[in-house]
Amino acid sequence: MAASTQLTEQQRRDQTRFRGHRGGMITMHRALGHFHLGPMNMLVAIALFLSFTTLWLAFLPEVCRVWQWFFSVGLRYLPLDARIDVINQRFGILKFAMPSLLIRPLLPGFSLWLGITLTTIALFAATFLLPRPMVPLIYLSRAILIIQGTACLYFAIWPSQFPHTPDSYIQGLMLFSIAMISIVPLLFTMTYYIFDFGIARKAFLTALTMSYLAIFVPLQVLFQAMFLQKTVMFMPILYIIFGMPADVMIIVAFYSWGMTWPFRKR
Question: Does any domain span residue 9?
Fold first, then answer.
């Protein structure tokens, strides 16, 4: 009788582990419920990884030419004072001519610094007037404004010691973007291809993500160049908010969308 009571108590504790704070049952996530890492999924994952990586590296020189064309069109129609520079890059046997933009570095004058600083303070104060339902937007806005505020403080104390130039920043952004697109097949191999969505959907999501990033990169650079030509004071917020995190969030967004698709029927 004691053993039966003990068994019942153990079963009750096991069931409690799968209940939420309101007593409802916590079901297994649909991805885990359909996760079957069989030999075929492994072969498909390896094949897609090798195929997309090879295609991307083979067409990278052509993609760089398209980016250069984007820059030339942007310089023609945008109020942007910059020049196109082509940098020969080599990684092992891979060679490509990466386009970039040359922009004259400008430190902020006192009037520009004062205007940006007062605007940052005013916008930060305005976040306290937003309604409570907008809490996510409030905290996001404050985080962005705090980053800009630190830049204002830095350029107020050490303006001449800022070590970066728009040229080096844009070159680094271009190299990082190329690296991010290059590792998309590897990321999806470890996180998406292992699920049974079917080879067509896996290939479509990978091609769509890489193509979107390839179009986004030159637009991202032109957008940031519009601010960098005014002053390098905008560089910290452009790098931290609109640089690498923007590329990462695009990949996460496409991956999240792909995970909502129905699994292949067995």
Answer: no
Question: Residue 196 sits in which domain range?
Answer: 38-106+164-266
Record the tokens describing residue 35, joined without a space. Answer: 């996760």
As a whole-number percent, the residues of the chain with pLDDT over 90 amount to 54
pTM (2 d.p.)? 0.81
What amino acid occupies position 144?
Answer: I
Q: Can you tell me which residue has the tokens 């191999």?
A: 189
Query: What are the residue ranges of helices labelled H in the chain?
Result: 2-16, 30-33, 39-77, 110-126, 135-157, 166-182, 184-191, 199-228, 235-240, 244-259
Q: Is residue 171 within 8 Å of residue 42, measured between CB atoms? A: no
d(CA 23, CA 1): 29
- How far apart are the C-alpha atoms of 75 and 82, rounded to whole Å? 7
15: pLDDT strictly greater than 70: no
- Whether 102 and 252 have beta carbons less than 8 Å apart is answered as no
Q: Do the Cβ atoms of 241 and 224 come closer than 8 Å?
A: no
**What phi, psi does 28 have (nearest 5°)?**
-65, 140
Percentage of the chain beyond pLDDT 70 is 85
Domain count of the chain?
2
Residue 61, amino acid? P
Query: Are residues 69 and 115 located together in one domain of the fold?
Result: no
> Which tokens go with 72?
């030339």
